[in-house]
Amino acid sequence: MELVLSLGIGVLAAAGIWLILRPRTFQVVLGLSLLGYAVNLFIFAMGRITVGAPPVLGVGPGMVSVDDPVPQALVLTAVVISFALTALFLVVLLAARGETGCDHVDGREPHEAEPDAGNPLP
Amino acid sequence: MTGPVSNFDVTSVWTDHVVVLPVVLPIAVAGAMFLIDERRRALKAGLSLATMLVLMAASLVLVSWAGEAPRVYRLGNWAAPYGIVLVADRLSAMMLALASVLGLGALVFSFARWGRAGPRFHGLFLLLLMGVNGAFLTGDLFNLFVFFEVMLAASYGLVLHGSGEERIRAGLGYIAVNLVASLFFLIGVSLIYGTMGTLNMADLARRIAVPPGGDLGLFEIGCAILGLAFLIKCSAWPLGFWLPTTYSAASAPAAAILAILSKVGVYVVVRLSLLVFGEGLSLQFGRSTILAAGLATIAFGTIGLVAARDLTRAAGYAVMVSSGTVLAVLGTGNGAALSGALYYLVGSTLAAGTLFLLAEVLQRGRDPARTAEPVFADEYRDPFDDADATEIGVAIPAVLATLGVGFLLCTLVLVGIPPLPGFVGKLAIFMGLAAGPLAAAGWWLIAALTLSSLGTLMPLVRLGIQTLWVRQDAPPATLARSEFAALAGLLAACLALALWGGPALAYADATVDWLVRPQAYIRAVLGPVEGSAP
């Protein structure tokens, strides 16, 4: 399980970092979401991975291993916040698209890279 | 409850709750604000003004109380490591007072024009203050994260307030950078929890003092990643390229209140590095990095100032220089210098915030792009409909002279020329550094601060001559009454800081004296008995 979890976190984080470094705003949004998933899984992992352990509410005399509720509370908070902020970011993205007429993160196309793409320099 | 807060009688049952007031009041009023129709401007303005006045009174009360003993507020009266605590000690109370004074100034300034430039200004403004106040008060990292996010979410709205292409473009980068910073925050917090098993700051400081069972290296990695999040927030080099662009694009009152936002990052770095790394196993962890980052920030901010071509951008770089100064002084580990730096922090933040407001008044009408059309027309109610144009035109006698004096005072504070607080703060830093063992770092810092004074003076004087003395084709500057009141109030606060410099510096000294003894903080929050380890 540890291998699967760490591989999952690693792949998500790598894909997220790649995407937030891309020039299009939509790619940045996707990258931020993927990074957020990676971080949420990471927080879970920091609460130690256990199988079949009950949540803390079920502690009885016979139970020695319980699940730590604090990372779960943290994840819940983080999920809600990142969801709201992703929605906000999408609104800003649309506003930027409408206002600047392009979806580049700088709000304008880099003209230096254009000549070979058939776009003559101004 | 035991500890320094135990001497409460029945009458103090209510006064006790003043600690939670700076968090509860703004969020309650902000909630109500979203229910009130956008057209009832007078009601909204009155409500937020009353809220800000109460907040200022509360923060001043907390400042006076903090002199005796720190107030620890346990929500629901749950004991500290398990429940949520708010701690109002000297540093928190000082930052609260700074936030409320600057907030009041920015709010009053917005009454004339900017409060109407878009929807939900007052609600967002109060939410931002709630987040800032909560971040200053909270005693654990989990709630620090929540308050941080509230503050950032409100700031995203405020940066975009007034709309227009420039703001949206700057806001896009600002939001992306801060979302990544929040992810760093989460990684850091979860690493700290995974290794130390607690998120309460006092508990953390106690556990680091005794050999922990966890992995110390992993804990330090967590702290470093957490610190990265705050260094992005206080725009330390090389993490702060977003700041001048964003702040100069934001509307004036928003930029003024955003100046306190970067100080939240500085506050957390000061608090955590003195509390958790003041003693114990990870002694002075990251201190040299903070020193280097601070020095580089001072240098970068000064160079940016020299290159700045308009006043708002210059004010943004001035915010960076002020943050960098406090970070660098913290990095030297010199207590006397740090108290000077805290004093300097208050004065320079006030001055930078005022400069944002002044710059807007001076550049008004010369840059039509700053009040562009909105994107969401349905949300938008007549930004600067000229129905109230007469109010803007009301002339304070010799407007330009008034603005000139204000600009001069701001410059004097930011550069550090006597007799204003910038000079007193820098002098206190220099004297503190000179009194201590003067290592190479101290010399570097003195050189950097001296050069940055010069590098601040030149561009500000140049920009001042350009905007105030050169004959312009643009219409003459006008100043509404509320704008005048805001500017005069903020500058009066700067002057008061200089006039009562003795008590203020003594307060800063006592603050540092309190901060460098983490055991006192731990005792105040967790109680005097060594709690049974969970």
UniProtKB/TrEMBL annotation, chain A:
How this chain sits in the membrane, per its record, is:
Multi-pass membrane protein
Location of the protein in the cell: Cell membrane
Query: What InterPro entries does the record tag this protein with?
Result: CPA3_antiporter_subunitC (IPR050601), NUOK/Mnh_C1-like (IPR039428)
Entry keyword NADP: no
- Give the main localization category: membrane
Q: What is this protein called?
A: Multicomponent K+:H+ antiporter subunit C
What the record says about family reads: Belongs to the CPA3 antiporters (TC 2.A.63) subunit C family.
Sorted alphabetically, the keyword list is: Cell membrane, Membrane, Transmembrane, Transmembrane helix
Q: Which residues cross the membrane?
A: 6-21, 28-53, 73-96
Establish whether keyword Transmembrane helix is in the entry: yes
What's the source species for this entry?
Answer: Methylobacterium aerolatum
One of the Pfam families matching this protein, by short name: Oxidored_q2
Taxonomic placement: Bacteria, Pseudomonadati, Pseudomonadota, Alphaproteobacteria, Hyphomicrobiales
Automatic annotation (TrEMBL), chain B:
Q: How does it sit in the membrane?
A: Multi-pass membrane protein
The record's subcellular location field reads: Cell membrane; Membrane
Membrane-spanning regions, if any?
A: 17-35, 47-67, 79-109, 121-138, 144-160, 172-196, 216-243, 255-277, 289-308, 315-336, 342-362, 398-421, 441-463, 484-508
Tell me which residues make up the NADH:quinone oxidoreductase/Mrp antiporter transmembrane domain: 139-448
- InterPro entries assigned to the protein according to its UniProt record, in alphabetical order: CPA3_Na-H_Antiporter_D, NADH_UbQ_OxRdtase, ND/Mrp_TM
UniProt entry tagged with the keyword Transmembrane: yes
Keywords on this record?
A: Cell membrane, Membrane, Transmembrane, Transmembrane helix
* Keyword match rRNA-binding: no
Q: Which Pfam families match?
A: Proton_antipo_M (PF00361)
Primary localization class, coarse: membrane
Q: Which family does it belong to?
A: Belongs to the CPA3 antiporters (TC 2.A.63) subunit D family.
Protein's recorded name: Multicomponent K+:H+ antiporter subunit D
* Species for this entry: Methylobacterium aerolatum
